[in-house]
Structure formats: C-alpha cells, structure tokens
Amino acid sequence: MLRRTLPLLALALAACTAPTREAQPPTVDPAAEPEVPDPLVRRPWTTSFQEPALLFADRVRIEGPKGLLDHFAARTVDEYHGYDAETRPEGFVQSFTVSRPEAGVELRAYLDALELVVLEALVVVERPGDLDVSVVAEGDVYWRETASGREQRASRLVLEGGVGGPPAGER
Predict the structure, then answer these.
(1) How far apart are CA 91 and CA 73, in angstroms?
(2) Which of 1, 45, 84, 144 has the fewest CB atoms below 10 angstroms from its CB?
(3) CA separation for the pair 138, 154 (Å, rounded)
(4) What is the distance, to the nearest Å, from the Cα of residue 44 to the centroid of all Cα atoms in its chain?
C-alpha cells in the first residue's frame, strides 16, 4: 500500500511547488507601452467646409485623412440607392450609387456644412496618413456658397481643404 501512496504523495507535492523565476511572466514597464489615442481628442481638420454651401453634380469623390467620416453623413433610401463599403489598400472606401435614376431620387450627403446632391455616384475614401481633404465633382456641376451667393458651373470642380493649416480653397 505504501508503494501506491508514495508516488501519489510525490505527485501532489510537486504540484504545490512555487513557479520558478523563468516561469513567471516578465514585468512590463508602463512607460514603454504605446500610447492609445483618446477617442474624444479631435484630430486636426480643415475649416474649408464650415460655411454653408451646395454642390450639385453627377459624380462626386471625397478623399481625406482618418477622421473624415466624423465630418461626413449620407442619407440614402434602400429602394433607390446602392451602398458598398470595403477596406482597400488606398483606405476605407464607401460607394453610394443611384440604382434607379428614372425615379428621380438623388443621393443627399453632407461634409460639415457642404450639402451634396449627387445624381449618379458618390465615393468617400478615408485614407491613412496626413493629407488634405478633396472633393472632386464631375458631370453637370453646380456649386454655390450660401452666405456670399458666389456660384460656379463647370464639368469638373475640385474643392480642397488643408488639414491643420489654412484652407487650400478651390481649383
């Protein structure tokens, strides 16, 4: 009986030993940990689209840095609009399309105080890295600043806003 109990006793004692120094996890220096960004801290942003304006176009492409989607909103109707979103090497891409143009229901979107009315397609790309915000409108384009009444018609219009600096303006 002692022969059977002795190995079990040895096994129980081995399980109760303290871990060796090598088996303990290494201590982490809190000062060496990467800083986690505070989601409430605002990223630098352009002031170019703060004044109310209207942009009417067939096709629009908006590109900007991380944080662009904090300044963008779109209103769609499932029955009349298509939507797709995917992450690509160029960044996070959202595509909005008018799936039934004969119904006369355009896409409505906003970039800060810039109201967009789009008849065919709208693409929004939130890119990694530091870059300015650009809005490229094509087709039958009409742009109007609400306060000044200044307006422009063109087949292509580019509006740009410098991030972290003065507004880059329009081209």
Answers:
(1) 18
(2) 1
(3) 8
(4) 14
Please give the Cα distance from 88 to 127 (Å, whole number): 10
Summarised one tens digit per residue, pLDDT across range 35-58 is 655 555 667 888 899 999 999 999
The DSSP symbol for 76 reads -
Whole-prediction pTM value? Answer: 0.71
CA 46/CA 80 separation, integer angstroms: 32
Angstrom distance (rounded) from CA 115 to CA 150? 15
d(CA 162, CA 171): 13
Could you give the CA distance from residue 58 to residue 12 in angstroms, rounded to a whole number? Answer: 78
| Residues 121/97, Cβ–Cβ less than 8 Å | yes
Contact, 64 vs 41, CB < 8 A? no
In whole angstroms, what is the distance from residue 82 CA to residue 95 CA? 8
Instruction: Enter the tokens of residue 146.
Output: 């609400």
The domains of the chain are located at 53-170
Place of tokens 């109760």: 16
Give 124-165 pLDDT, tens digit per residue: 999 998 899 999 999 999 999 999 999 999 999 999 998 754
Q: Looking at the DSSP assignment, which residues form a beta bridge with residue 150?
A: none
- What's the rounded Cα separation, in Å, for the pair 63 and 162? 12
pLDDT at 8: 56
